[in-house]
Every structure is written in structure tokens, then in C-alpha cells.
Amino acid sequence: xxxxxxxxxxxxxxxxxxxxxxxxxxxxxxxxxxxxxxxxxxxxxxxxxxxxxxxxxxxxxxxxxxxxxxxxxxxxxxxxxxxxxxxxxxxxxxxxxxxxxxxxxxxxxxxxxxxxxxxxxxxxxxxxxxxxxxxxxxxxxxxxxxxxxxxxxxxxxxxxxxxxxxxxxxxxxxxxxxxxxxxxxxxxxxxxxxxxxxxxxxxxxxxxxxxxxxxxxxxxxxxxxxxxx
Length: 229
What we know:
alpha/beta, 2 domains, 4-stranded mixed beta sheet, 9 helices, 40% helix
């Protein structure tokens, strides 16, 4: 399997002229731990992570967080808006092409002690592979029994399964991830019930070309709503 098989598609990025407050909002709203920083031409010039924002370097940024701790909301907001993301981002970013084999990705992550790798096509970032994605690939490899479907067809099937599982009335999974290997679909995420989980299974199995679907989704029922008297 290659990087393109397991990477998270549609990578969210942040503009180089954005503030650290803008970046913080994106990380929170998109439930990601790091995002590429891109210039006006869409080329990656760095990456910013939760650690860059939570553990800022420099006196000015240290002052920013001390202001927040003191609940000086107005001053803190203005300081966060004034501090640009380029001041805290990591500039030297390790990347990998989309056709990089997964063992090589694992070696690079271990060697450079990073949790994720941006996947590039030329100068553009097209995906992100994390250590969790590598673990998913391990599960897929251990459960796959057939590999007679061409590699490029697996890529197409992955997109088709993802499309079939989105925009439906039952599409309630948090952080849906799909991997297809040898025509077998593997789905990850968190769903509110077994009924919804089964709906994802049926949707994947109904995609032409899919032999079977392994649903690794975790069922977490929603917490009951308290009604005041």
C-alpha cells in the first residue's frame, strides 16, 4: 500500500497571513492536530500544530498566554490577532510523495520523531498520513484475503465508498475514514448506534466492485439530554 491509499484527503490548510487565533479555530473546528501553512500560490511554507500554539516560543507569545490566564479577554484577543501564524509555525517540514510505500513512511516518522507527514503532489499538499493511518493499514493488511483488484481500482473504490457514505440522512459518523484493499472496504469512525453502523456497512457493500465491508466503527450512544423541571 502507498501513501495515497491511507492518507486523509481534502487537507485543511491555513493562509500564511492568518493569525494564531485563526489557526486555533481551524484546529478546533476541524478536529485535527496540525495543518499546513500555505502561501498565496497554495504552496506549503510550513506547518502549525497544537504544540506550536499551546507551547509558544518567545516573550511576546508567552505574554499572550499569561494574558489569557488572567482572563484579560480583550487584550488577549487583540494579541492573538496581531501574532501571525508564520511566527510560530515549523518551517522545515518533512513531506513525502503520494506514491511512497507505507513502510518508508513509518521509517521516516520514526527517524524524524514526527506524528504525521504531509503528502505532496509536486508543490501541492494533497493529503496527510498520521501514525493512526499506518495502524489502520496494518489492520487492513492483516484482514485482507484477496489482492486481485488492481491498485488504481482500489483508489477509485475508496472515493466511491466515501461518496456513498456522505450526505445521507443516517450519515452521523464522526471522522469517517475509508480504506479499500483488494476490493474490500474498511470503515472507521464513531457512530451513535448499531443501526447507523449497519447503514454504513450496507452503503459500502452496495458500491459496485466492493467484495465486502469490514466496519471497525465504534458505537457510542449519545448522552441523554437533561430536562430541567
